[in-house]
Amino acid sequence: MNENAIVAMLRTPNQRDWKIKFDELKELVIAAGYKIVDEVIQVKPRPLSATLFGKGKIEEIAKRAEINNADTLIVWNTLKSMQKFNLERYTGLRVIDRYELVLEIFQRNAGDPLAKLQIEMAYLEKMIPYFKLREKLIHGPTDKPFFRAGGEYGWVPKVSWLRKRRKKLRERIEDLLQKKMVEIIKRKDLGFKIATFVGYYNAGKTSLFNALTGEQKLVSPTPFTTLSPKYSKLIKAQNILLVDTIGFVADLDPRIISSFRINLEDMTEADTLVWVVDVSDNESMLDLKIKATAKILNRNGLLEKVGVVAANKIDLAHDYKLKIDILKEKIDEYVFRDTPIVPCSAKTCVGLEDLARKIVNVLEQL
From CA 258, how far away is CA 219, in angstroms rounded? Predict the structure, then answer.
């Protein structure tokens, strides 16, 4: 891609964790293949409904884009259709928010038809309102789009076509969801117990999955390498299946989660969830990731399914015992019970036998 990008954020005065979230945005921008050439942050009591940023800040962004030869403005905040349209109009840049950025990374990592279907669905949920607004503002109530109308956006299909496409995708995903449910029921009828790994992206879920099953699924430092669920038997346990799933991210738009309904079923229908946490993170990042994961699990009624917490990457943590104490305090706050926490390292295999034994014990008690 190699596009030059300005990363920006509108934060409120009382937003304490803004720097951590902005740093994470920059990591995602780099992972998506952009080159960051400038950073812009504005502090306001509330975002402007039409433009997000103030007029002066938008003019500043446009000037800095010209100086730095930027092509794209990437905004941490989730943009409304009007905000996106006006920012593009006033800056002359391609504008995307974190929702679209995450989907771009998804798209780069999509290796199977199911993942691609769900990604396209998530794109349409976000972009149809934008395209509808854009066509209305550019062409007016009576003007009709024509070939290459509107300059660089002339390739955009008509909104009616997009809606039909969304309907077809929904039908296809619903069909695949029904097949998924049949597969899950068959596994349970055969006596299998299912433990699904959940957690933040890059927590090491796939590495643990590989170590505990003997599989060799792709592991990468790139966020969201795992998009489609992977099933395999736990070593030395013929009736237990482990499932590797998509990673979470802070403030993930609910529309993305709803578009990935098939992945969500692997969590919903699991007998227990194994919450994987990267304890090599600093305390601020650890707090952010735990809160974000708990929020997503709670929103989907899954917190009560958490049976084990895997405190992964202890080999990289300076004082992992202190991190375990911090983790226990935070986990107890969200899960509301004495959830077992197992220190482990997928890389060095330390604690993996304890983790496997704990998963088996939890499933046997169900």
Answer: 25
3-state helix, strand, coil in the chain (%, to 5): 50, 15, 30
Note if the pTM is more than 0.70: yes
Q: Fold for 4-105, please state it.
A: Rossmann fold (3.40.50)
Tokens linked to 297: 């699990």
Comparing C-alpha atoms, which of 99, 36, 25, 96 is closest to residue 70?
36
**Sequence letter at residue 313:** K
Residue 292 to residue 295: CA distance in whole angstroms: 5
Which helix or strand (DSSP H or E) is residue 42 part of?
strand 35-43
CA 106, distance to chain mean position in Å, is: 9
**Which tens digits make up the pLDDT trace of 319-334?**
888 888 888 888 888 7
Which stretches of 17-80 are DSSP H helices? 18-31, 55-68
Beta strands in the chain (DSSP E): 4-11, 35-43, 72-75, 94-97, 193-199, 230-233, 240-244, 272-278, 306-312, 341-343
Structure tokens at 355: 């983790």
Q: Which of 106, 262, 110, 101 is nearest to 175 (CA)?
A: 262
Token digits for 19? Answer: 């720097």
Residue ranges, CATH 3.40.50.300, the chain = 191-364
Query: What are the pLDDT digits (tens) for 157-185?
Result: 567 888 899 999 989 988 988 898 899 89
> Cβ(196)–Cβ(183) under 8 Å?
no
β-bridge mates for residue 359, sequence order: none
With H, G, I as helix, E, B as strand and everything else as coil, classify residue 12.
coil
Asked if CATH classification 3.40.50.1370 holds for the domain at 191-364, the reply, yes or no, is no
Q: Look at the block and give the residue holding tokens 């998506």.
A: 32
Of 73, 34, 80, 78, residue with least CA distance to 57: 73
Sheet holding 272-278, edge to edge: 230-233, 240-244, 193-199, 272-278, 306-312, 341-343
- pLDDT per residue over 70-98, tens digit each? 999 999 999 999 999 999 999 999 999 99
- In the chain, CATH 3.40.50.11060 sits at 4-105
Angle between helices 261-268 and 113-139 (to 10 degrees): 130
